[in-house]
Design a protein that fits this description.
alpha+beta; five-stranded mixed sheet; 7 strands; 38% helix; GTP cyclohydrolase 1
Length: 223
């Protein structure tokens, strides 16, 4: 019989997600960023001390504060809805009706199972139904949802859903190809493998449109 701890380890090692949304508590933002940094700093100090590290050494004594600031201000900053980018859209006055693709958007995220990096590229496309969005906003949407403990499937879906809401169309697609250091540097230690996820909405579910998008991004994976 598998005990609960073994079951939870199995979920994490196999990269399963139990929630289509990031699992945040209702009181997630009841304390300030500065208070969070102080609490996390003490936790990191405890981890390092438990591992036997000498926190009086000049090289490491600032690590707890650096890690705490990095967690709150940088790599997990996308958890805070106050930091969500404003997805400004504009009328499609030039009547461009074909697919718009922005490919090779850098993805830096963190696996929520082992808190190790996910590094890769996102390829995003949409077909305007009357509204267009600034190119940099597409990058910022990817960055915002990537900056949180994540699973790649959820990240892919969140990017598409955010653009669908902003543009008022279902015709949005996203493909992410990324390396997971929890696979590459531990566990199976397969340094060559990467993970490809996709989400296709509206017209992108049609074979011809989907193929055109995949041709644009030069991805041979079959969906």
């Amino acid at each position: 019989m598998i005990n609960n701890e073994d079951f939870l380890d199995e979920i994490g090692d196999n990269h399963f997600s139990s929630n289509a949304k990031n699992p945040l508590r209702a009181d997630a933002f009841d304390i300030t960023d500065e208070e969070k940094i102080e609490k996390i700093k003490k936790d990191v100090e405890n981890i390092l001390q438990t591992l036997g590290m000498d926190l009086t050494d000049d090289s490491i004594k600032g690590t707890p504060n650096r890690v705490a600031k990095m967690f709150v201000k940088e790599i997990f900053g996308g958890l805070n809805p106050a930091k969500q980018p404003k997805a400004s859209t504009f009328d499609n006055n030039y009547k461009y009706g074909e697919m718009l693709v922005e490919k090779n958007i850098t993805v830096y995220s963190t696996c929520e199972h082992h808190l190790l990096p996910i590094i890769g590229r996102a390829h995003v496309a949409y077909i305007s139904s009357g509204r267009v969005i600034g190119l940099s906003k597409m990058n910022r949407i990817v960055e915002y949802y990537a900056k949180r403990p994540q699973v790649q499937e959820r990240l892919t879906m969140q990017i598409v859903q955010e653009l669908q809401k902003a543009l008022g169309t279902e015709d949005v697609a996203c493909v992410i190809d990324a390396k997971h250091l929890c696979v590459n540097s531990r566990g199976i230690k397969d340094i060559e493998s990467s993970t490809v996820t996709s989400e296709f909405g509206g017209k992108f579910k049609e074979a011809q449109t989907k193929r055109e998008f995949l041709d644009y991004i030069k991805l041979d994976t079959q969906f």
